[in-house]
Amino acid sequence: MQRTRISFGRQWIRAGLWVAIAIHWLPLPGLLGADSLRTLYALAASIEPAVELLLQHRALLFALLSLPLAFALNGRGSLRAGCALLLASDIAFALLCLQRWPLSPALQRVLLFDVASIALLLIGLAATAPSGDQTLRR
User: Residue 131: what pLDDT?
Assistant: First the structure.
């Protein structure tokens, strides 16, 4: 019975880490152009070409930053390193947001997703404490 509970908990933690990865993949449709970016970020105004390029670069970088964790969840890397990489990015964005408070509604939504990601990644890091780095692998 105890073993079943532990396995069930690990499955939920793994699922949470996949959700954190998915959060970082959400901006990828923005690579398709300004219309996709406006829809993604619920922007009413047109987007300047320079801002469009920066947002597309952001989308690509977030997806790339999530790859080490995705590989680790499939047994090909360090879960702790993958979690730490995304966590550093999310915390940095949250701190930048706090410096610019109050935020627009669009940025508040982005921050909300990042805070959810931070929580999931912290749980993942706690679950991969040095005594059990292998516990969440496939």
Answer: 63
Does residue 133 have a pLDDT over 60?
Answer: no
Q: The whole model's pTM is what?
A: 0.82
Residue 120 vs residue 34, higher pLDDT: 120
- Asked if 14 contacts 4 with a C-beta cutoff of 8 angstroms, the reply is no
Tell me what pLDDT residue 2 has.
43
Residues 6+ apart with CB under 8 A from 124: 13, 16, 17, 20, 79, 83, 136
Torsion sign across C-alpha atoms 11, 17, 19, 22 = negative
- Which pair of structure tokens corresponds to residue 114? 């990042």
d(C-alpha 50, C-alpha 54), whole Å: 6
- End-to-end Cα spacing for the chain: 21
Domain spans, the chain: 1-127
- Reduce the DSSP state of residue 26 to 3 states and report it: coil
